[in-house]
Amino acid sequence: MILCRLPFRSPSDPVFEARCEALENRGGNAFMDLSLPEAVMKFKQGFGRLMRRSSDHGVVVVLDGRLLRKRYGGIFLKSLPETKTCFGNLETILKSMENFLYC
Hints:
The protein is built from five helices and two strands. A two-stranded parallel ribbon has the order 1-2. By secondary structure, it is mostly helical.
């Protein structure tokens, strides 16, 4: 499975805008209290669609650099079950995937 970007909802969605505004009016932080938890849940669900049973195996590739560059990227990574991870350039990742899938 390839995820081109982290699953944040579009901030221009009218319903989402209204929820953010209401949350901020109550003193909350729209990103930390609404956007991030929702995106992390969708991320976990996408991962879960690949891995339904303990005997399943597969590869999830996330192309969004925010996973490593932003502080909240760690929240996404910690939300996943314990699994092998690989970070690097294309060649490194392809070799790691090949070793995982075929060895």
